[in-house]
Each structure stands twice: as C-alpha cells, then as structure tokens.
UniProtKB/TrEMBL annotation:
<protein>
    <submittedName>
        <fullName>Uncharacterized 2Fe-2 and 4Fe-4S clusters-containing protein, contains DUF4445 domain</fullName>
    </submittedName>
</protein>
<dbReference type="Pfam" id="PF17650">
    <property type="entry name" value="RACo_linker"/>
</dbReference>
<dbReference type="InterPro" id="IPR001041">
    <property type="entry name" value="2Fe-2S_ferredoxin-type"/>
</dbReference>
<feature type="domain" description="RACo C-terminal">
    <location>
        <begin position="380"/>
        <end position="650"/>
    </location>
</feature>
<dbReference type="InterPro" id="IPR052911">
    <property type="entry name" value="Corrinoid_activation_enz"/>
</dbReference>
<dbReference type="InterPro" id="IPR012675">
    <property type="entry name" value="Beta-grasp_dom_sf"/>
</dbReference>
<dbReference type="InterPro" id="IPR036010">
    <property type="entry name" value="2Fe-2S_ferredoxin-like_sf"/>
</dbReference>
<feature type="domain" description="RACo linker region">
    <location>
        <begin position="120"/>
        <end position="211"/>
    </location>
</feature>
<dbReference type="InterPro" id="IPR041414">
    <property type="entry name" value="Raco-like_middle"/>
</dbReference>
<dbReference type="Pfam" id="PF17651">
    <property type="entry name" value="Raco_middle"/>
</dbReference>
<feature type="domain" description="RACo-like middle region">
    <location>
        <begin position="215"/>
        <end position="371"/>
    </location>
</feature>
<dbReference type="InterPro" id="IPR042259">
    <property type="entry name" value="Raco-like_middle_sf"/>
</dbReference>
<dbReference type="InterPro" id="IPR027980">
    <property type="entry name" value="RACo_C"/>
</dbReference>
<feature type="region of interest" description="Disordered">
    <location>
        <begin position="659"/>
        <end position="678"/>
    </location>
</feature>
<dbReference type="Pfam" id="PF14574">
    <property type="entry name" value="RACo_C_ter"/>
</dbReference>
<dbReference type="InterPro" id="IPR040506">
    <property type="entry name" value="RACo_linker"/>
</dbReference>
Amino acid sequence: MSNDPLVVFTPSGKRGHFAKGTPVLTAARQLGVDLDSVCGGRGICSKCQVSPGYGQFSKHGVTVAQDALSEWNSVEQRYQDKRGLIEGRRLGCQAQIMGDVVIDVPAESQVHKQVVRKRAEARDIVLNPPTKLFYVEVLEPDMHDPSGDLERLCDALRDQWELENVKADLQILQTLQPALRKGAWKVTVAVHLGDDENPPRIMHLWPGFYEGSLYGVAVDLGSTTIAAHLCDLQTGEVVASSGVMNPQIRFGEDLMSRVSYSMMNEGGAAEMTRAVRAGMNTMFDEISAEGGIDKGLIVDAVFVCNPVMHHLFLGIDPFELGQAPFALATSNALRLRAMDLDLNIHPSARVYLLPCIAGHVGADAAAVALSEAPDKSDDLVLVVDVGTNAEILLGNRDKVLACSSPTGPAFEGAQISSGQRAAPGAIERVEIDPVTKIARFKVIGSDLWSDDPAFEAEIGASGVTGICGSGIIEMVAEMRVHGIVDAPGLIGTAEQTGSANVFADGRTNSYLVYDGTADGGPRITVTNRDIREIQMAKAALYSGARLLMDKFGVDKVDRVVLAGAFGAHISPKHAMILGMIPDAPLDKVTSAGNAAGTGARIALLNTSSRAEIEETVRNIHKIETAIEPRFQEHFVNASAIPNAVEPFPILNSIVTLPTETFNTGGDSSGGTRRRRRR
C-alpha cells in the first residue's frame, strides 16, 4: 500500500498515488487526464487551471486538508495580477501535491472539449410567451394633471392594450423619464404578463418603436452537464444552444455523493450552490455571445432539474433528500427573479422552475412528461430519461407512474478505465468482427469506420482519445454477442473467447480495443471492472422500469422512448442486448432526444403549458424505489447480461447470445467448472 498522497481527478475519475512535491500537471499527464498546457509548464499560458476540492469526499474515500497542495507561489500571483484567476483556481504546473486531494479539471482546461449533446429538438410549440412587447403613446405631463410619468404609462397600457394593474421595478423608474422624452412620448414596453402569484410588470422599455426582440432561456440543469437553449420570444426560434460541465462534479459524480459532501463539510451546500450558479453564468455569457445578443435582453428563464440540483441551485441544503422519507423543501412550481439566484441576465428577468414530482423524481421528469405526454397516449409507453440519475415514466390515458433510479455516471464515460465525456476523438460506435473478434469503431467528429484507409488522416486533429457513453454500451453489448463476455459479466481468456485481443490483466482479463502508443496515443481497453460498472448502471435502470411495470400489473410495454441527451445516441438493439430496457420490438424503441430540454422550451414559450404541467404532476403516482423490496430482486436479476430470469423473446429472435460461462477456476479449456473453494 503506497504512503504517497492519493490524487483523484474529476470528472474523469482517474486516480493514482504520487510522491509529495509532484506538480498536478505531471500527475495528470501520467494518468492520462485531459489537462491542457501550451507553455510546457512555465506558468505562462494558464491553460492548466484546476480547481482543488477541500473537505471530506466519502465517494472517493478521502479527506482533503487545506494544505493538500503547495502554497500559492509567485508565478501564480504574477498571473493573477496580470489576467486574474477565478477564485479557488490553481495553475496545475505550479501547484504541487502535498497530501490526498481531489482535483477538478474544468471544461476550459481540457484539450478535448466536450460535445454537449443536449441540442434543441424540432418541435411545434404554441407561441404564447409570458413577456411581450407593446408600443404605446403616453400623454404628456400637464400642469392640470399632477400624475407621474409611470402612472400615465400604466394608463396607456390599460387603455391601448387592456393591461390592468401593471407594476414596475425601481430600475424602470430610473430609466423611464429619459426614454419617454427621447421617444417623444412614444415607447415600446416589455411587459411580463403576470401569473397567479404576480401582477403584470414592466421589464424594459425603449424610446419610440423598438424593432428588435426579447429572449428567454430554457435550461436543463443536469448532474453532469448544464445545457441551455436561447429562444426568441417573438418567433419561438432557437437562436443558440450552449452547454457546460456542471462544476459540482468535483464534489461527487452522483447526487448522493453531493448530499454526503454537504453533510460532511460545514458550508458544503453553500459552496456547491455558488459553484453551480457560477457555471450557469458562464454558460449565459457563452450562449449570448453565440447568439450575438446582449444578455440583458434575456427577460425570461425556465429551469428543469432533479431534486438535489433543484435544492442546491436554490441554496437549500439537500440534507433531507439524503434520508427517508426524502422530503423536498417544496414540490410546487416556483416563480422567482434572476436576482434572487445571482443570475447575470436582465436584472428583473423572471425565472420559472417546473414542479418536482417526488423526493427523487424532479422537475426534469416533469419536463419530460410535458414533452412526451404519456398521459395522452393510447398505448402503454415507457419513457426513460437516461442520465446520471435516470427518471422513468410509465403510463397511458388511464394513469402515469414515475420513479427515479440511481444509474451513476458510467453511461457518460465516468468511472470507466478508458472512458471520457463526449468529445472529438471519443469512440461512439462499435462493431466486433465475428471471426477475428477485432473491434472496428467510429469516433465523434468522423463518419468513417476505423478500418477505412482514410480514417487515420481524417481524425488527425483529434486522434482516438477514449470511449464515451454510447461507445461503451455498444462495446459491452458487442462483446456479449461475440462471446468475449459471458452472461454474468466475466471476460474470458484468449483461449476461451478465441480473441487475440483479450489479455490477462491481474486476476481477470481485459479486451484491447485500440493501441495508439506507437504514435504517442492512448491504449484503449475494456476491463472487467468496466463491465461491472456498466452492469450496475444498467441493472439500476432496468429495475426501475420493471418495478413500474409490476405496479402497473403488466409484463410488457407497447413502446419505449429513450429520452435525454445521452439517450438520443443509444442504439436500441445494443441497449436491449445489455438488458437496459424491457424486451420490445426494435421499431417501437425510439429516441426523443433531450426531452427535458424540450419540455423546458415548451414552458418558456407557452405560458399556458405551465398550468397544464402543474396539473399533470399532481396526477402522477410516485414510486419510491428505495423502499420497494422487489427493486433489489429485480436489480440482482438484471445484473446479468441481459437478465438472469427475464426471457427477452423478441431479442432472442434477433440475436443468438452465447450460453458459455467463463468462471472456470483457472481452467483455460473453456469449460464451465466452478472455482474450487479451499
């Protein structure tokens, strides 16, 4: 056991022991962590910025002391004085490892930038935004009429547009009189039309006739990524889409790790709140720049998120969500202002958070319900929003059931030996030759397969860098189909599998996917631990779906909808081979893309949909997997690939899965003798 300090890098999950005094950049390079550096570690380029975490990290089994890194040095101070560093950041080339430490590599410090796949899906949405533009002519002041300019503006809105009881914030009063006089008493006014809790309110005004537009953002605040769509409130058009990694990842990849961090570290919840709001504001800067607009014109925002993200975003300690009965501070929809949440958009911008369904089924699941409308379906539909915390809906016109399942980050490439986020160079599609047992693949950024003669030249800029979530799913499924992995999840030996790419790796075996070491690239493998991570994730997902089917009293569903940014890239066939989803005709397994983001856009652009989803959520029946005895039973069965007891007749009509098992107690003959006990 090494006495050297343990270093854990997030979001990759890569870890190792290093001697005291080792620069963080050196440790990152030795572990294959994606940390940029242009200047060769001289403290000039600042590309290697990292964010160390301090306190107790139960997920990683470490407690990080304040002196885990060397003291701030003169090189960092010089850079801070000249260009400025974000608070808490260090330069990886300067900070040295002095004790156990957890280090987050922010997105902007990664060489291979993540492709945030939460794109806006094409959808017809009834346009009825909560904030609209109104052109009015205001009466000039008169010695005989002592009313103020604001009062006469409100009278004009009432008389010309039938807007009653309109209010205004202080910042409107501060700009009102110059605007009225510059516009010769004609102004264009942006008015939030109000709701059950708030009267109509003036958001902004321009002298004369304003020919521009207003904007809103629909934000999907996920455990791993934050994605937003910038929408024109006049036309409904998606002007720009952007996304960033959720900076809370350094406190834990999964939700319960973050709840644990808040429990174990005083002020931990507030620290995570500051981090996620800062990440949000970074994204607003990016999306407004991409859309070519002033972010001060963003006057509406809708947020969807799971319950833990919901509480941490609002500045509520998620302690109660970490223990039964998993009580939310509130499950109702919330109507707030941007300034309440420290968001750097229009100061009076209105913020709407969709309602949560239950303690572990959040506003993101409500957004999926709004987008996919299982309550309006004639057939029985299973909607699975695949992510670090999967939300699952099952229903039809009769009723809708919902639950969440803690799948963890493995589906997104985390905790996988060669895993990575979706970025150029990441393997995303896989096929294994049934004769040679060699894998060919596609990477993000190229349409060519790896056995194409032009492949190496086309991917020259990115290279082959690792395996992302969709790639690892296809990889494990292909290994199962071609007899490299058995049903219990064990990789056989080279002799058992007939594959020269299988090699002994400690007490188990691993499979070589790609070896780029001759050209300075990575050696990409799939280990037996990787298989276990995928087994645990897919078992949690399937068990949640199967539990809802039990509650519904059915053994099959009519159709399956894979939602979520990641779900859009999953091959239905490979998902079924793994046993991620129930057996169903492949043509009845479809992708809804980022359904939570689509639901957020619907709520942003059609204010009447907000009352609709609030009513829908009240009628959804919530199932808490943590207290259901059969969940564990389903989980154990679903740990096999595809399942230990479920027959999967439709899948078996499509593919024939090998029946051999490899637990032979060291016998390389391919038999199925069990390991001897001493």
